[in-house]
Inverse folding.
C-alpha cells in the first residue's frame, strides 16, 4: 500500500510550531536545535542537539516532538541526539531573536552582553548575575527604566 | 582507549556537581544560589556524556546511572579536590576556581583528541566551562580583593585546598591525555587571577594523591555518596 508520506519540508513546518518548553514564545526551530530531518526507508529521523548538556528541558523537548509528530500521523520516528558540532546561539533564527526581544528577553549578542533593554530600548544596562532562571540566560538590569530582565547568553 | 580515563572525567564532574548542588537553597544571595545550581546542572549534564560513553565502551551492560549510583567510594576515580566539603562560600568558590582552571585546559586539549566521541564531548563542555571559569575567577577576585574578612577567608581557602592541586597534574597511562602538560597554562592563569585577587600562592607544593587512582580517597567521599546514592540503592528497580 502506498500512502502519501509527509515531505521533509512539511515536517519542518510542524516542528516550527512546537514551542520551547521553557521559553514558549520561540519554537524548537527558532532555537536552532533541530539539526536535520530525513526519511530512512519508512522511519522519520529527526536530529536534535541539546542547548546545554544538563538542560532539563532536553527530555521534555523529545517528548514534545514525539507527541506532535505522532499526532500528524508519523508512526515510525527515531530521535537522534547529536552533540557535535555543539549548539551555538548563531543557529537561532532572526525571527526567534525578534520574538525573544518582544517577549522581554534580550537576544544573544556577539559582544557578550545585551545591546539594549528589551522594555525601554535604553543602552544603559548592567549585569546582575552571569546566570539566570535557565542555563541559557543571565540576569541584567536597565539603569534607565530600572527594570531587571533576562539576557539570552551568547555561546 | 581507556575506559578508566573516561570514568575519571565523568567522576570529576559528578562529584563536583553533587557537591555544588548541596548549596541549592542555602547560598548567601539568590543570584549566587541560581549560579551554583546552574553550574551543578552543567556538570551533571557533562557527567551523563562521559559516564554514558564509558559504560558503552566498557560493554558490560552498565549505564551512566549504574556507574553513578552503584559503585562504592573505592571505585570512584575523581580528583581529591572535588570531593572536599563545601565549608564556607569562600572555600566552595576557591575549589571551583582551582578545578575550573584545570578543567578548561584539559577540555581544550581534549577537543583535539583522535577519538571523535571524546572530542565531541570536550567541544560541548568547553563552552560551559569557559563560563564557569569566568564566574569563579570574578568571585575569587571580588572576595580576595574585598574586605579584610573576605580576604582572610579566601587566603585560608587557598591554603587549605592547595595540597590538592598537585594531583590534577599527576598522570599515568589511564588518562585520556598527558595532564602534566597542562601545568604551565594553569600556573600562568592562576598567577594572573591571584595577583588581581591580592592572594599569595602557598610555598609548599606538597600534594595529596590517591583520588584519580582510587588508592586513597578522603573520608568525605563516602559520606557524600551515602546521600547521593541512597534512593537508587534503597529502590534498585525504580525508574524515573
Amino acid at each position: 500500500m502506498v500512502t502519501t508520506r509527509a515531505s521533509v519540508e512539511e515536517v519542518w513546518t510542524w516542528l516550527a510550531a512546537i514551542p520551547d518548553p521553557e521559553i514558549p514564545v520561540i519554537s524548537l526551530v527558532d532555537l536552532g536545535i533541530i539539526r536535520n530531518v530525513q526519511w530512512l526507508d519508512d522511519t522519520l529521523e529527526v536530529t536534535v542537539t541539546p542547548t546545554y548538556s544538563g538542560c532539563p528541558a532536553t527530555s521534555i523537548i523529545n517528548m514534545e516532538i514525539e507527541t506532535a509528530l505522532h499526532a500528524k500521523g508519523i508512526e515510525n520516528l527515531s530521535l537522534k541526539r547529536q552533540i557535535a558540532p555543539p549548539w551555538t546561539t548563531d543557529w537561532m533564527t532572526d525571527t526567534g531573536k525578534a520574538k525573544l526581544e518582544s517577549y522581554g528577553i534580550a537576544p544573544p549578542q556577539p559582544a557578550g552582553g545585551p545591546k539594549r533593554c528589551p522594555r525601554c530600548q535604553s543602552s544603559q544596562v548592567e549585569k546582575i548575575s552571569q546566570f539566570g532562571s535557565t542555563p541559557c540566560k543571565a540576569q541584567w538590569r536597565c539603569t534607565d527604566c530600572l527594570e531587571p530582565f533576562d539576557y539570552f547568553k551568547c555561546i | 582507549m581507556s575506559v578508566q580515563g573516561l570514568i575519571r572525567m565523568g567522576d570529576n564532574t559528578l562529584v563536583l556537581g553533587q557537591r555544588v548542588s548541596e548549596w541549592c537553597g542555602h547560598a548567601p544571595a539568590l543570584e549566587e544560589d541560581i549560579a551554583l545550581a546552574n553550574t551543578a546542572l552543567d556538570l551533571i549534564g557533562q557527567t551523563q556524556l562521559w559516564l554514558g560513553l564509558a559504560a558503552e565502551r566498557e560493554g558490560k551492560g552498565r549505564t551512566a546511572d549504574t556507574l553513578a549510583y552503584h559503585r562504592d567510594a573505592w571505585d570512584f576515580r575523581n580528583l581529591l579536590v572535588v570531593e572536599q566539603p563545601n565549608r564556607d562560600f569562600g572555600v566552595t568558590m576557591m575549589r571551583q576556581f582551582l578545578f575550573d582552571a584545570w578543567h578548561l585546559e584539559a577540555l581544550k586539549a581534549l577537543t583535539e583528541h583522535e577519538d571523535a566521541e571524546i572530542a565531541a564531548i570536550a567541544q560541548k563542555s568547553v563552552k560551559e566551562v569557559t563560563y564557569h571559569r569566568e564566574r569563579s575567577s570574578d568571585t575569587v577576585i571580588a572576595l580576595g580583593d574585598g574586605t579584610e574578612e573576605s580576604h582572610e577567608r579566601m587566603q585560608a581557602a587557598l591554603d587549605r585546598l592547595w595540597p590538592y592541586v598537585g594531583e590534577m597534574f599527576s598522570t599515568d597511562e589511564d588518562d585520556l591525555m598527558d595532564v602534566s602538560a597542562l601545568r604551565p597554562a594553569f600556573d600562568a592563569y592562576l598567577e594572573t587571577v591571584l595577583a588581581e585577587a591580592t592572594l599569595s600562592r602557598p610555598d609548599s607544593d606538597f600534594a595529596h594523591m590517591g583520588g584519580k587512582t582510587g588508592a586513597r580517597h578522603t573520608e568525605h567521599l563516602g559520606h557524600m555518596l551515602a546521600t547521593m546514592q541512597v534512593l537508587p540503592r534503597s529502590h534498585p528497580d525504580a525508574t524515573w
